[in-house]
Amino acid sequence: MKVKEISGLKMGKKVLVVSNPEIFSHYGETVLTSLESAGFEPSTHLIPAGEAYKTLDSISGIYDTALDYRLERSSTMLALGGGVIRDITGFAAATWLRGINFVQVPTSLLAMIDASIGGKTGVNHPDGKNLIGAFYQPRLVFHRV
Ligand SMILES: NC(=O)c1ccc[n+]([C@@H]2O[C@H](COP(=O)([O-])OP(=O)(O)OC[C@H]3O[C@@H](n4cnc5c(N)ncnc54)[C@H](O)[C@@H]3O)[C@@H](O)[C@H]2O)c1
Predict the structure, then answer these.
(1) CATH number assigned to the domain with residue range 4-141, chosen from the 4 options 2.60.40.10, 3.40.50.1970, 2.60.120.200, 1.10.3210.10
(2) Rounded Cα–Cα distance for residues 43 and 20 (Å)
(3) Among 87, 88, 116, which is best to mutate for testing ligand 1, by the most ligand atoms less than 8 A from CB?
(4) To test ligand 1's pocket by mutation, which of 80, 84, 116, 143 has the most ligand atoms within 8 angstroms of CB?
(5) pLDDT along the chain (145 residues), means of 10
């Protein structure tokens, strides 16, 4: 991943990479190495794959990690994954400290051509899909890793 673009956005050093174990096994090391080589301090939060995990519990888990790593207002949450990871991470970024930087690295076709556009973020309620959320635009969307 080329991080020249992300460096130019003048964001803080802390970047929380949110992904699932399957996707992370393919791209995680590349993303972490790229961020580190550009001077960022990445940390990782993994959520099991699948729509069943697009929940407030997953958001709560991200908040716990954000607290552990002391993410600040200038910090970034980076979504490495398909539409599910993107929607979860975007909502966490929109709400942690009332909104921190959000960057997307979409890995599924749907995430590249649909979920990357429009700024919709959110999670499911047990009684309905996408009932909880916010519009929150990413600072950057990468289309290659
Ligand atoms: N925010 C928006 O505007 C918007 C628009 C459309 C859809 N969505 C949401 O997107 C979600 C669906 O997204 P999706 O179709 O990407 O499903 P998904 O995120 O569940 O990904 C599908 C599967 O593909 C795997 N995967 C993703 N990229 C991979 C890769 N490069 N290599 C190997 N495996 C990979 C994932 O681990 C997962 O198991 C839904 O929750 C939907 O509501 C959001």
Answers:
(1) 3.40.50.1970
(2) 14
(3) 87
(4) 84
(5) 70 97 97 95 98 98 98 98 98 98 96 90 98 97 77
